[in-house]
Known about the structure:
Elements: H1 2-18, H2 27-38, H3 47-56, H4 60-70, E1 78-83, E2 88-94, E3 108-117, E4 120-127, H5 129-132, E5 140-143, H6 150-153, E6 166-169, H7 172-188, E7 227-229, E8 232-234
Antiparallel strand pairs: 1-2, 1-6, 2-3, 3-4, 4-5, 7-8
Helix pairs in contact: 3-4, 4-7
Amino acid sequence: MIIKTKLLATMLGVSLITGVAGPGCSSDDRSNDRWATTENTNVKIDWDKVNEAYKQAEGPEDLERRINEIYEGSEVISVSVQDLDNKTQVVTGFFDKDHDGKVSDPEKIFTIKRDLKGSEAQYQTQGYGPQYGYYSSPFYSIASGMLMGAMLSNMFHPSYVPIYTTAYTTSSARVSQLDNHRSSYRAANPSRFSKPSQTGRSYGGGKAVGGKSFGGSTSRGGSRFGVARRGRTVVRIG
């Protein structure tokens, strides 16, 4: 009788343990839920460097390269560049999670809005989402003749022609290139990435692939962005 009682108790205990998760709630499901809720919530962005990157960028590809060197998370930041009119440009940084090459509100990380006023212009950066929505930069003033990259200086050019639809968005192929470049960049700069990222990925300790740098000094990514030549619009990306 005692043996039967112990056996019944053991079987009941096993039944309770195996039934805790319930139908459709495996340990893998709980693990996936945890990752979904913690993704992108602890990685900080150096906003001063982002603002400077926009000022110095030679074009959209150069800008996205610079921004992904700044960002210390494991995701790649895609970039969309759009002229709203002949004076206003909006740059959007976003995580293209659905890989459709389009910006959706939940994917937004930041926007940089630039307005041209005569011989001077200004731009401002705004963060988005629960992690970055707190940030709103001051208005940065820029004037013709200042030291800056072609992406901004071209707007002062007499033949500057705005593009009223999305002129540039990071492609899926470009995302892979940026990811490879950033891995090489981090390996070549271990002092900057000597600690594990807050998404759990470790950087540093390696060498740049083939000793080459992606996005070199030749074409730095669309230096003719929005500039017309001989009566036609030329938009060179890369």
